[in-house]
Amino acid sequence: MKLLVAIAIAVSFAGPGLAQTSNTGGLSAVVAQLAPSPADLMARYYPDRALRMRVEGIGRVRCKVVANGFLDDCGVVSETPPDFGFGDAALKILKTYQVDAAKYAPGSNVTLPVRFNIPPATLPTLTTTIGLFYPVRALKDQREGQVGVRCIVAPDGTLRDCGVASERPADYGFGAAALKMISSVRMDVRNPKFAPGSTITLPIRFNLPPKTNSAAPTPTH
C-alpha cells in the first residue's frame, strides 16, 4: 500500500447567519459536518483548472432545509470568480453537510457561501523511527540522521530517478534507507509544486524513540 503525501487544501464557511470558521475544518454549531472532513472534500472537489492556476474562489449555494437539518433542492446563486467551477464544487461539498435544525426550521431557505482556499505549498518532511527502514548500525550506535532525496515526479505522483542529495551523518546507511523509504511515497500532482516532470528534494529524518527509565527485569532462579 502506497503512502500518500498530499498538501491539504482548506475550506471555510461564512455568511449571513453562519459564523466564520477557520481553515482547519472546524465548523460552528450552525453547520454540522457529516463526512468526510473538509480537507478531504477539498482534495476531492477543488476545481482542477482553478487548482492548477492557483485560483481561490467562493461558491454561493441556496438550499431548502428539510427534516433534521438536511439540505435539498440546492442551486448555485453565484460563484467568484466565474467559469472556474466553484459553484458546482460547492454543490457537491454541501451534500455532506446539514444545518442546525434548532436554528433553521424545515421549509426555510439558507444561502451557504463555500470558500475555496489554497494554503502555501510546502514540502512534507518524512520521519521514520525504529522500523523497516532504520539502518541497523545506526540503531546499534544510537545515531539519528537526516537525508535529502532528490527525485522527479512521475505522472501518477510516484517518484523516479531518485538520488541522495545530502546525508548526515555519512557512512551509516541513512541515504540508502531513505531511497527505500521514498519508493512508497506518492505526491499530489494536482498541486503545481508537485507537477509531473518537476524535480523536488524531500527531507527525511530518522529519529530514535524516546528513552524510557524502566529498569530491566531481574532474572529469577
Written description of the protein model:
The chain is an alpha+beta fold and 221 residues long. It folds into 2 domains: 3-117, TolA/TonB C-terminal domain (2-Layer Sandwich), CATH 3.30.2420; 126-206, TonB (TolA/TonB C-terminal domain). 16% of the residues lie in helices and 33% in strands. The protein has 5 helices and 12 strands. The strands form 4 sheets. It has a 4-stranded antiparallel beta sheet with strand order 2-7-4-5, covered by helices on one side. A 4-stranded mixed beta sheet has the order 8-12-9-10, with helices on one face. Strand 4 (57-65) and strand 5 (71-80) form a beta hairpin. It starts with a strand and ends in a 15-residue tail after the last strand. Mean pLDDT is 76; it is low at 1-35 and 213-221.
How many distinct helices?
A: 5
Order of helices and strands: EEEHHEEHEEEHEEHEE
Report mean pLDDT, rounded to a whole number: 76
Number of strands: 12
Number of spatially distinct domains = 2
Return residue spans where pLDDT drops below 50 for at least 5 consecutive residues: 1-35, 213-221
Question: Can you tell me the CATH class of the largest domain?
Answer: Alpha Beta
Question: What is the CA-CA span between the terminal residues?
Answer: 47 Å
The class by helix and strand makeup works out as alpha+beta
Strand order of the biggest β-sheet: 2-7-4-5
